[in-house]
């Protein structure tokens, strides 16, 4: 979501002020820090970076410094109190006002500017003011909703992005069609609770997430659809049926569970029992054989017992997750869980996290090896930097596969056959696949190893 917001800020400033992006802060006229407060100490990292930027501003007083995103929403005026040299503070829902905020700055190097702060929640307004996206490449994100109304006890999203608000159906489809005309072939639909989408049709009736997926799949040029992040409560029969019906839907679902313990889920206010999650996975696998699952886990949530952790490991064994985003619990300021007593030793939390990640890495290795002999449909993404004359394609299960081919294939789908899997000695380093091309790819028969990231979703 932050990556999407950052790209839209670039579009905004390019259209309204003619700015171009630079990766060198010394060259910049405007420095923007788009922040995330999902982890503890995020604020300190923000102020640490601002301290480095302050040195630039001392030498070039006209440089504008802005802080956006969730930390900006959470801290608001507090950012100016700690870092009075900051010029702009804006939340995720007000990034569309960034050009006006720049215009409203008064003064220059000799006269102090009047800093601008806007961290309000104007619902879905921002999408009415954002310019048409300019996409370079064949993959793109499309935000279909904002905020979350679940109020899990560990999560800051409802406080930094507001309540759930879905974009109108016509607006989403228009954006997908527009980027498809620019050459996008894989679209990832975004939302803090993406499968809780309920957008309005032009006649005022309501479209659910599964119906939106069917409409996106019908857009000419769109060959693959992903979405993130889901919640088990909205993973209904209609969505499961869409996975069975739509070949464009990638055979991979990221469905965060956080814990395998009913007791911990209740403390997290996830509002479902683990039996619901298990049943959802069972029905999804039956509807879409071969589908792969990944998830989020919080280890060491306040009060987590050894039995709670074992319940999580039992779920890992039951589902066979392909990869995960797993972390030790960290307090999010202002959330209910931050006030819970936590007497689990940090060393024990780290030990449990290592056990979980090791087991999921074993799953990843087995699933990678099981690809031997299979034909994988990949979206040809870019040239390989390791092997001249080779390309990298992204499979539905998020593996990155190297294979020989002409750069003209980039942005197209191709079928490649996995002809060998190298022995996996260090899972965290990645498992190479060997491939040769066939079918529509038509790129020869040379075989060399390629690199596969093991626990990173292709986003």
Shape: globular
> What helical percentage do the residues reach?
25-40%
Describe the strand arrangement of the main beta sheet, using strand numbers.
17-16-15-18-19-20
CATH architecture of the largest domain: Alpha-Beta Horseshoe
Helical stretch tally: 14
Please mark out the parts with pLDDT under 50 across 5 or more consecutive residues, or reply none: 423-459
Q: Report the biggest beta sheet as strand number plus sense, adding barrel if it closes.
A: 6 strands, antiparallel
Tally of distinct domains:
3
Beta content comes to 15-25%
| Separation of the first and last Cα atoms | 10 Å
Class of the largest domain, according to the CATH hierarchy? Alpha Beta
Annotated CATH homologous superfamily of the largest domain: tm_1862 like domain
Q: Find the structural class using helix and strand composition.
A: alpha/beta
Q: Taking all residues together, what is the mean pLDDT?
A: 85
Radius of gyration: 23 Å
Number of DSSP E strands:
20
The CATH topology assignment of the largest domain is pyruvate-formate lyase- activating enzyme
């Amino acid at each position: 979501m932050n990556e999407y917001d950052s790209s839209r800020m670039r579009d905004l400033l390019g259209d309204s002020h003619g700015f171009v992006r630079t990766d060198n802060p010394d060259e910049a006229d405007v420095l923007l820090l788009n922040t995330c407060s999902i982890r503890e100490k995020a604020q300190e990292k923000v102020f640490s970076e601002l301290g480095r930027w302050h040195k630039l501003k001392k030498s070039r007083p006209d440089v504008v410094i802005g802080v956006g995103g969730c930390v900006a929403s959470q801290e608001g005026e507090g950012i100016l109190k700690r870092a009075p040299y900051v010029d702009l503070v804006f939340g995720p829902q007000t990034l569309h006002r960034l050009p006006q905020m720049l215009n409203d700055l008064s003064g220059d190097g000799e006269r102090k500017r009047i800093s601008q702060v806007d961290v309000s929640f104007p619902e879905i307004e921002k999408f009415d003011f954002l310019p048409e996206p300019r996409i370079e490449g064949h993959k793109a994100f499309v935000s279909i909703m904002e905020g979350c109304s679940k109020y899990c006890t560990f999560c800051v999203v409802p406080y930094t992005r507001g309540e759930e608000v879905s974009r109108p159906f016509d607006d989403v489809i228009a954006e997908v069609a527009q980027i498809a005309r620019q050459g996008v072939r894989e679209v990832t639909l975004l939302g803090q609770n993406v499968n809780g989408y309920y957008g309005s049709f032009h006649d005022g009736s309501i479209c659910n997430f599964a119906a939106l997926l069917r409409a996106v799949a019908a857009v000419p040029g769109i060959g693959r659809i992903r979405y993130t992040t889901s919640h088990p409560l909205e993973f209904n029969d209609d969505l499961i049926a869409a996975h069975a019906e739509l070949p464009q839907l990638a055979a991979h679902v990221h469905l965060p569970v956080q814990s395998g313990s009913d007791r911990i889920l209740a403390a997290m206010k996830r509002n479902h029992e683990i039996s619901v999650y298990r049943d959802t996975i069972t029905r999804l696998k039956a509807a879409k054989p071969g589908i792969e699952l990944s998830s989020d886990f919080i280890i060491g949530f306040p009060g987590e017992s050894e039995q709670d952790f074992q319940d999580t490991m039992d779920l890992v064994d039951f589902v066979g997750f392909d990869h995960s985003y797993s972390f030790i619990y960290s307090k999010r300021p202002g959330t209910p869980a931050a006030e819970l007593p936590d007497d689990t030793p940090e060393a024990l939390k780290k030990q449990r996290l290592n056990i979980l990640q090791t087991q999921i890495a074993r799953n990843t290795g087995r699933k990678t090896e099981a690809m031997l002999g299979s034909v994988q449909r990949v979206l040809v993404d870019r040239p390989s930097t390791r092997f001249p004359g080779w390309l990298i394609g992204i499979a539905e299960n998020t593996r990155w596969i190297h294979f020989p081919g002409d750069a003209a294939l980039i942005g197209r789908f191709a079928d490649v056959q996995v002809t060998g899997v190298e022995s996996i000695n260090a899972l965290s380093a990645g498992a190479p696949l060997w491939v040769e091309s066939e079918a529509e790819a038509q790129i020869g028969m040379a075989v060399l190893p390629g690199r596969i990231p093991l626990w990173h979703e292709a986003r």
